[in-house]
Amino acid sequence: QVQLQESGPGLVKPSETLSLTCTVSGGSISSYYWSWIRQPAGKGLEWIGRMSTSGSTYYNPSLKSRVTMSIDMSKNQFSLKLSSVIAADTAIYYCARGAVASANWFDPWGQGTLVTVSS
Amino acid sequence: QSALTQPRSVSGSPGQSVTISCTGTSSDVGGYNYVSWYQQHPGKAPKVMIYDVSKRPSGVPDRFSGSKSGNTASLTISGLQAEDEADYYCCSFAGSLWVFGGGTELTVL
C-alpha cells in the first residue's frame, strides 16, 4: 500500500524559507494529485495546496503568494516551499494524496512533521 | 474563504449515537457533493472516514454515516465505541481549494 513520509528541517528562522519533501513509497507518484496540509498545535487543519504530476497547481489563496510546490517524478517525491515564514507558520505539516474530482478526499496521509519558526 | 463551522465538542455514552454538524456556504458545502470527514486520534495523522458526503472507504465500519442538507453536512456515529473517541474534521471542495472545519472533539463517556 502507498505510504508517505515527510522530511525537512524542524526549525526555521523567521523570514526564511520552509522546505519540506514528501517521499511516496509502495506506489508510483504518477497520475495522482498530491497535497500539503498543516495543523498548528491544538488547532484545526488548513489545506495549503495541491499539485498534479502534470504540474498544475492549486494553492490556498491565503498562502498563495508564499507557496511553491514541485514534483520530482524520478525520486517519487513532491515538495513544499513556504517563503517569508513567521511564527504563525509553526505547525505540523502533513503530505497527502489527493484530491481530485474523481477522488475528492485526502488519503493516505504522512505521519506529519513539526516545523517550528523561531530565531 | 472561511473555515467550515463545527461544534467544539460532542459526547455520548457507549452504544449511543452522536451527530456532528459541519456548516458552510453555497460556495463550498452547499455547492458540491464533495464533503469528506476525517478522524484524528491524538498524535496521529487524520484518517478519512467518509467521502463524497456519504460514501465509506473500505474498512470503515458502517456505524459511520454521512449526509448533507443545504449548506450543512453531518457525520453520524451510531453504536458508539470507546475507540471512536477522537477529533473529527469535515472538509469540502470549494471550487479551486479545499476548506476544513475547525474540528470537533468526541468524548465517549
Describe the protein.
The complex is a heterodimer of chains A (119) and B (109). In chain A, 0% of the residues lie in helices and 47% in strands. Chain A is mostly beta strands and 119 residues long. The termini of chain A are far apart. The mean pLDDT of chain A is 95. Chain B is built from no helices and 9 strands. In chain B, strands 1, 3, 4, 7, 8 and 9 form a 6-stranded mixed sheet that branches. Chain B has a 3-stranded antiparallel sheet with strand order 2-6-5, with no helix packed on it. Classes of the chains: A mainly beta (119), B mainly beta (109). At the A-B interface, strand 5 of A face strand 7 and strand 8 of B.
Could you give a quick summary of the protein structure above?
The complex is a heterodimer of chains A (119) and B (109). Chain A has 119 residues and is an all-beta fold.
- Main sheet of chain A, how many strands, which sense, barrel? 6 strands, mixed
Low-confidence segments of chain B, given as residue ranges, are: none
Strand content of chain A: over 45%
**How many DSSP E strands of chain B?**
9
User: What is the oligomer described by this structure?
Assistant: heterodimer
**Taking strands numbered 1, 2, ... along the chain, how are they ordered across the largest sheet of chain A?**
2-10-9-4-5-6
Chain pair sharing the greatest interface: A-B, 25 and 24 residues
By secondary-structure content and strand pairing, the structural class of chain B works out as mainly beta
Encode the helix/strand succession of chain A as letters: EEEEEEEEEE
Mean of all residue-level pLDDT scores of chain B: 96
How many beta-strand elements of chain A?
Answer: 10
Number of continuous helical runs of chain B: 0
Sheet with the most strands, sense and barrel status of chain B: 6 strands, mixed
Please give the structural blueprint.
The complex is a heterodimer of chains A (119) and B (109).
Chain A: E1 3-7, E2 11-12, E3 18-25, E4 33-39, E5 46-52, E6 57-59, E7 67-72, E8 77-82, E9 91-97, E10 113-117
Parallel strand pairs in A: 2-10
Antiparallel strand pairs in A: 1-3, 3-8, 4-5, 4-9, 5-6, 7-8, 9-10
Chain B: E1 9-12, E2 18-23, E3 35-40, E4 47-50, E5 64-69, E6 72-77, E7 86-93, E8 98-100, E9 104-108
Parallel strand pairs in B: 1-9
Antiparallel strand pairs in B: 2-6, 3-4, 3-7, 5-6, 7-8, 7-9
